[in-house]
């Protein structure tokens, strides 16, 4: 009963928009109101050529990224200096993230219209950075089909108050203290999120339909081969070198992945809604995603920051997302939130991340339109 009372104090004046007037930072605009346009209107505004997938262009990006990855590794091994290693880790971890985004395009089918090509390239790219391609692809499809739905979404889903209450204090602190949540991805692959069961590696997981088990098993085998290759390399060569060449960049990649995917769904200046039941729709859920500007990193990670249009139309290749977004903005109106322009590096986004993780703890167990609320006791503990 004591815990319930302190959680209920989280239903405070800033639960909706960060102010006590119920308005927020954009006049009288209510982001939870049903939009006055249909998804077909957005689709019609996007030029037809933006939907065209060019496999040669996609493969060109793969060649570019793979070349950079090997060039960075070769340079790091040649120089072998502790002055250079941190620079290598940052650069290579970012390139691992770029590799992931291309595999992500394969999973969506936006890489090409050739199903076999998508799967082969996707397996090679994702297995190289220890991601089970089909296991992730299927759960990510679930995320896209249910984005913004408290009950059915799959990625960075808000915890209902009841589940949040049952977390011990240590778990809460770990989940809501930067940078720990930025290392969550490997754990998510193995165990998913609190309140959800299953593993991305287990073909019999609740994540997958029986018809998908063979594909998931294939990806788990490919992932295992990569793990064995790293172990073998550690035995033949120096395990410390393998850690420096692949292990540390992998951790940087994980942090990039968690950083980017979190900020695409959280941390906007005005709190955005999550939905249940009849209030949720594919369009309304997609409109709660947020575009971000990453400065010089935009081109490196294939403009994945143009996330609203990607969420609504994941079939659009990444190299057309900027143009498609520009064309769709007049239709979207205030439902499109212009990203804050970045300098060369997106340092400004760290404040969004820290603020959101410090404030966005859970949502009410009831209600079909809900907003993140804050656990004041956790906030006080972390500030002391």
UniProtKB/TrEMBL annotation:
Residues 1-27 are annotated as: Disordered. InterPro entries: FA_desaturase_dom (IPR005804), FAS_N (IPR021863), Fatty_acid_desaturase (IPR012171). Residues 11-74 form the Fatty acid desaturase N-terminal domain. Residues 1-19 have a biased composition (Basic and acidic residues). Its main location: membrane. GO terms for cellular component: membrane. The chain crosses the membrane at residues 61-79, 215-235, 247-264. It comes from the Eukaryota. This is TEMPERATURE-SENSITIVE SN-2 ACYL-LIPID OMEGA-3 DESATURASE (FERREDOXIN) CHLOROPLASTIC. It comes from Salix purpurea.
